[in-house]
Input
Amino acid sequence: MFIDELIGFISGLSFWQILAYFWPFFIVDMCRYVLLDTFLVISYIPAWRRKAPLRMAARKRLFTERPLVSVIVPGKNEGRHLAKLTRSLSQQSYKNIEIIVVDDGSDDDTESICRKLEAVGEITTFVSNRVRGGKASAANTALNFARGEYILHIDADSFLASNSIETILIPFYLDDSIGVVGGDVRVANVNQSLTTSLQAIEYMKTISTGRTVLSMLGILRIVAGAHGMFRRDVLDRLHGWDVGPGLDGDITLKIRKLGYRVVHEPHAICYTNVPVTPFKLAKQRYRWDRSLIRFRVRKHGDLLKPSANFRFANFIASVDNLFFNLLLDVKWWIYMGQIFIFHAAMLEYIFVINFILYMLANLLEFLVAWSLFSNTARPQDKWLILLIPLMPLYTGLFIRIVRTYGYLMEALHRTSYSDQWNPWKVSKVAKRERL
Amino acid sequence: MRQPVYLRTVQSLGRSSGEFDKIEISQLKSVDMASIACWLIDEDEPELVKTLVEAIRQHPCPSIYLRGVVLLTDKNINTDDLSQQCVDTCSNLQLFDKTIANELCSSFSSINEWIDKLPKATEFSDINISFKVLRFLVSRKAEMLPVMSAQVYCGYDYPLIAPMLETNDGTILEILDFLDERALLTPRFITKTHLCNNCNSAFLNFKEVCPHCRAEEIKAAELIHHFKCAYTGEFSDFTVNGKLQCPKCDMALHHIGVDYDKPSVVFRCAQCEHSFQEPEITSTCFSCRRSCKPEDQVSKTINAYSATAIGQNAAIFGLESLFTNILQNKLKLFSPEAFTDFLQIETARIARYKISNSSLLMMQFHDLEKLQIRLGRRAEEVFIELSAIFKSTLRQSDVISARNESIFFMVLTETALPEAQLVAQRLIDAITALFESNLDYSPAISTALKQINKELQVEALLEEFLEKNVH
Output
């Protein structure tokens, strides 16, 4: 009965009605995330193949020069994850690495675990900061002891595929203007809960595909803290990371401002543990989303201004970020208002059709990502396709609501300054100095 | 009436008047020991005192080396002066007269009586140094306390017994361990020390070294974290003209806890530049110059020692003849602690399965001491025979332990009280037969039997057993 009415509703729609009822999908999301991404990702394959001889030569150069890579792992109460990480590092195809772990004031058994790993040589240098200083301080402590020409920043609850370091280093040997390479981040605990499975699909779309596209367009604006390889000289120029949260996006923009290119290497794979429950996921995203206001709007708003250091790519990167995250979030609420006020009689049809459209878009994005990266994906991940029908609810409702709340709280109350993610003394100074 | 005798070296004739006899150390053997109460040494030169005391203590004759030694001195009594501590007592030279001498003689009377009890103390020579130490300890009836000393190899000395040894290379600790292991001495924990694993020297130079290359030149650096920009670096990075300034944002750092903090201290090796927080600790021996890690050093417990009841008997009759010593070799005698542990396990096992019956047999030889005195060194042969009786009567699964040389405890596993009674009777019969047929002597033996169950209290039982047999 409802289906017949639905079909009747759809068949009766004119072009302008379709546009009026579903403009967010057809004008924005389909164009940006379906058509553009699909087109660019498909064109990525021949380009990637064309560069195969160059990559071979770069790899040869890499193994001839064998630069030291410092893997820095800042963290608090992460001891239980470290054995897996250090094991994955010891199995790397690229061997000239040192591992520096900084314990940022842990109050569990992290220190004793790290001391044992240091004693058996699994960790090169372990520094225990008795006084917690925050993630940026821990990363900078590690940087102080790093001796490598390249610095790999990695989260303690992550681990790498065996060729990851080798793969993430190659772009530096292809292009001298690259300052930082972001590695692909995939979900390690895919099957732990429905929440983690949905995040696995999201990561495939937004990181594996999404960042590859941004990288191809030259407007990649973030390198994940979980997996990013930096040139040492670039980090030295910046004196390391600034106070977070959102320090990974912040330093990426600072590197772009210095004139370096930022690229994504989807074949350098890092597996990371993601929040298991919706509540923990909401907390994580709340923290991430507030950084858009705090850093991209307030701290790096100058990217949009025609100053002496103006660069068009940086301008577009910033516009893309602000438009597709901040403004389109506002758009979503406007659209909801429009539907509820003006089309209340057709509410159920519009929601169902939107649901189907976004589900199909998600399906296409999943298939594109799978076709590109299936050779490096775990075979069991293909069954994630069964969860695609849940994705419109996950991204369209859950993530959207958390994001909107984060934006509002940061814009109105600067709540990121009271986030426990940083020690209160650091947050106090950051708030006072308007950082 | 025993009298003190001055002892002197050839070089030093002593300062004292001719109140008492004077002899040279070379003439020790020729002295009639029955008339000597103690040795007097009237020297202030520590080396001479040491020579004289060593001459006495290293002498093999028990009636010479066990005799008390008095140092007559002008100096104040000083507990740090080893030359004063190696003698039994010190007396002021100026005040020393006949009255004090008599008091000293009576203070040594218990030692002299004990020496007199020794079988042929003036004729036999004690060659075994462990035995000499045991006899010396028993004769003093006091606890032997360790003293910290830079003069000896192992860092701790037992000044009274140290002169019995020719070297100060840590042998004294080995001897005391040897006697302790045989339950002849009771140790009391005083402290512990760490010795070189190569030469047992206590004189070790502890150093912090780089865990990567073992270099000794390492420098500690405080880390500073600037709150505003999150820059974290070594203290020297922040020092500009004696003030603290952040190298990242050029801000002056004023107040710790407000602008910055010091999250940790890190060492850096001057040789390999390795950074670390926990330097490796190593020690180098001043004596043999070998280096080792603390965990490889010999950790040694330093105890005060007093003689056990077994030790007191062994001091009279010799280590070899001791019954428990023989049983230890022949029967695998368990220590009282191990025996108690086994008994608890057996009690728990019986309570758990409720199908077994085991018995505890206590046995006391009442005249063993007399028998030892009567037999002297030949007691060993009798005790070997005695141990053979135990071995043939008890089964391999039975457990035997000694409380002292004459009280024995046995767990007769899987043996109910009636059968245990038979075992006890068989033991008594065989032992009685041994003594009666060979020595024309009937030993007095008491036994008690108890079934092993949860209510069994060994110590209370022992008390009850001893009380019953004494009365």
